[in-house]
Write a structure and sequence with these properties.
The protein has nine helices and six strands. It is an alpha+beta fold and 215 residues long. A four-stranded antiparallel β-sheet has the order 2-3-6-4. The radius of gyration is 21 Å and the shape is elongated.
């Protein structure tokens, strides 16, 4: 059994300047103000359309992120339908295979990390449950079950990997919603640092969400 942490990574380099210029060229079409395009105008224009709520302009650029999380979180992520997803398939991935180390990987819950007897006991119960799930999964494979049959004993804590693509308008919606305190703790564990990453790379598009997200 292997325990992993949730993570994310941008799939390709994010060219901030080109993204801003592309959005400006598209957005100024609405006002026929292309003649105002010049050095340094893109950032101010994009901040302006975001402030005014003219977010349809942001749909002209999409970004792709690779995410590692548990199956419970991934079920919430894929509910955002204005997106494209490619996810690790438990029908075809055989975790009893050597390329997976002949073991099942799980994501440890973030809400039992306190150094208290109660939290330690909850984590002990969880760990034993994950070990039992792995034992049952591998036993079913040994009895000739296919991966799609054996997966029936795997829990929500199962590690999964997915590649997700959204346009910038939907990324704003996703990150604002999923970094809020009302979101599931494990979703926030992923979304809060993800929002920080987007703010660092594209501040003109995401800096206003720093106050909106109730950290």
């Amino acid at each position: 059994m292997r325990i992993v942490e949730p993570s994310f990574a941008f799939e390709s380099p994010v060219d901030r300047e080109e993204i801003l210029k592309h959005l400006e060229r598209a957005g100024r079409t609405c006002y026929k103000s292309e003649g105002k395009i010049g050095d340094g105008t893109a950032a101010a224009f994009v901040r302006s359309v975001v402030k005014r709520g003219h977010e349809s302009v942001l749909e002209h650029v999409s970004l792709t992120v690779r995410v590692v999380c548990d199956r419970g979180v991934s079920h919430e992520i894929v509910r955002h339908r204005l997106a494209s997803y490619s996810q690790e398939s438990t029908r075809y991935c055989n975790y009893g295979d050597g390329k997976f180390g002949n073991q099942v990987s799980f994501v440890r819950p973030c809400f039992w990390q306190e150094d208290t007897p109660e939290a330690k006991e909850k984590l002990r119960i969880w760990t034993e449950s994950m070990q039992a799930a792995e034992n049952a999964y591998l036993a079913l494979l040994a009895q000739g079950a296919t991966p799609q049959e054996a997966r029936s004993v795997l829990p929500n804590s199962l590690r999964t990997e997915l590649v997700m693509t959204m346009d910038l308008r939907e990324w704003r919606h996703f990150l604002k919603l999923r970094s809020d305190r009302a979101s599931h703790p494990q979703m926030r564990e992923l979304a809060v640092p993800m929002l920080a990453g987007f703010r660092l790379l594209l501040p003109e598009l995401f800096e206003d969400l720093g106050d909106a997200a109730s950290y």
